[in-house]
Design goal:
Number of domains: 2
Largest sheet: 4 strands, antiparallel
Number of helices: 7
Order of helices and strands: HHEEEEEEEHHEEHHH
Shape: rod-shaped
Strand content: 25-35%
Strand order of the largest sheet: 3-2-5-6
Amino acid sequence: MQKQLLLLFVLICCSCLMSGCASIISGSSQEVTFQSQPDGATVTVNGKILGRTPLTTNLKKKSDQKLTFEKEGYKTDTMQLSTRMDSWFWGNILIGGLIGSTTDGISGAVHEYVPNQYFIPLTPLDSTRLDPLTEKKAKAKEFIVLQYKNIMTDISKGSGEYLNSLISLLSIVPEAQKEATAKI
């Protein structure tokens, strides 16, 4: 009976040493969540399409994986999936399981995705190119909002630096300034 218990204990110890601590505790895959603004971006890891955002999926743990978010009308965003060594891997070192450490390395359980949630704001393709006329109008609107009282004072006087600045911002030619001032 004692011999059988000793044999059982030895078998359990051997199986612990031969299996990786990280493999047993945290496994060789991990749940990762991907989100984008706007939704509907295609998520690709190392060329394999996982689906569209919002997406939560189990990924096989590996290092050096390239993550890509793609959506029509938006710039493609590519980055590395960030990993670190799973803390359970160190259990193998403490127990003395060289074989277990190898098991964790082969299965990928030695890695852990950190972060395990990705949120990517996508950039529209045309956002970098502002139409000069649109930009000019935006500046004029901002100036009017900020200096409304001063512009109205200058209009009531018939001239002034705020009215002149607005006319300049709007690129109104001298011949049309009188008519433009009346419309303002």
